[in-house]
Amino acid sequence: MSSTVEFKENTVIVVFGASGDLAKKKTFPALFGLFREGFLSSSTRIIGYARSKLTDEELKTRIKPNFKTPTEKSKAQVDEFLKMVTYISGPYDTPEGYQKLNSTIEEYDAASKVKESHRLFYLALPPSVFTTVAANLKQYVHPGDKGLARIIIEKPFGHDLASAQALQKELAPLWSEDELYRIDHYLGKEMVKNLVPFRFANNFLSACWNNNFIKSIQISFKEPFGTEGRGGYFDSIGIIRDVMQNHLFQVLTLVMMERPVSFDAEAVRDEKVRLLKSIKPFDKDNVLVGQYTRSEDGSKPGYLDDETVKPDSKCVTFACLTLQVDNERWQGVPVILRAGKALNEGKVEIRIQFRENSNGMFKDINRNELVIRIQPDEAMYMKMNTKVPGISNSIAVTELDLSYKSRYSDFYIPEAYESLIRDCLRGDHSNFVRDDELDISWGLFTPLLNYLEGPDAPTPQPYAYGSRGPAGLTDYLKRNGYVFQNRNIYQWPVTTPDVLEQSKI
């Protein structure tokens, strides 16, 4: 049975790790969001599974406060949704819980007179138990030729190239690539899903989306908080594994890939892989790494102040990397990936900076810059040069602005997990990570990680909690092709003063 079939009526969704934070804060609220908006049938059965000894009502009490209910109607829908939810307690490594789960699903299928069983398994679990649960599900709960099953696993998909390949080697005999959905929630974000139509449905972009017109690309991830007591966990991960190898690389592929031949999921993922294969190895001598210290006013602790962190830890909490794509379209265009914790603001954005006018009457004006803000407050705006109103011939920088919260205030914009779970239910792999994507991205990052975590690792530059990052950041960006504009001639919109803050580099 083809896994491209869309699940509609009488689907069973099993959430493993149902008692954990991820399920409570993301998975169950996403399922409720789909139900609230009419994308999940009331005939769906949702089963939480975990080792914790909970009753159905105790699970419902845990998850209910995280549901979004913007209207009186949606508040009334909560109880209707919770009627679809039950709970099974069982171990992850022995058969009895899985056998009970399978019996429960079969009873439901029989009562619903289901001809072909539709089962979705969501593993909101740590990677250490992925293969254990996947193996037991295949042996005891997969419907075989009597139906269709899909399985969602969460990142991280390995720690480096060797561990990622080992994980895939263990999963591949159990679950086919058609059945397996590796979820990276950034691929479900509205502005990330917009990149493909934005690029390929607008002809005015096609002529200039190349190295003849674009000078540099910057993809930034900024968090305003530190590890907040989770430093011991973060110490073995670091910012590069946490967001660069996965989230930012996925965004990069959609910004820079060639046009897919169709909307088919494999056509899209083929182009992402082709782009990844064109990326040159990282230059370890062109990397800026940092680690946050106590805030300047002393109110926020530094990374090493966390008692769970080793006193001499060189864990990277800030990184700036520059890569080169060796193909005809992008050769010579530096691509800067930048991510950090405990910074001055929370923001994820893409900055496409165009080349300057090299001659003529406007040769000294600011460069055009396209900014795509992924979060918060989704927006796209193009910085452009225009004449100052009135009798003056002076040039000012203004913007063509698409701010989602003003333009689409009445639209339902799904949360990332809502969007991706719906894609999985529809059998659409477009926004999920394929195995060869993992191999190539880990192959690029592993040598760099080995260097940064090895005996000759550089000491991360200190930066104060709440700052922009290490002192060398501005020079690094300039050295790698990003030109800071003349802010004195920017005409900021009077009606949206927050744009100034959101547009800071």
What does this structure look like?
This protein is of the alpha/beta class and 505 residues long. It has two domains: 11-154, Rossmann fold, CATH 3.40.50; 188-412 and 435-502, 2-Layer Sandwich (Dihydrodipicolinate Reductase, domain 2). It has helices at residues 21-36, 56-63, 72-82, 95-111, 130-140, 161-171, 190-193, 195-200, 203-206, 231-234, 238-256, 265-277, 404-407, 416-426, 435-452, 473-479, 498-502; strands spanning 11-16, 45-50, 85-89, 117-123, 147-154, 180-183, 214-222, 287-293, 318-323, 335-340, 347-354, 369-375, 379-387, 395-403, 461-464. The strands form two sheets. Strands 14-13-12-11-7-10-9-8-15 form a nine-stranded mixed β-sheet, sandwiched between helices. A six-stranded parallel β-sheet has the order 3-2-1-4-5-6, sandwiched between helices. Strand 13 (379-387) and strand 14 form a beta hairpin. Helix 1 (21-36) crosses helix 14 (416-426), helix 11 packs across helix 12 and helix 11 packs across helix 15. The radius of gyration is 24 Å and the shape is globular.
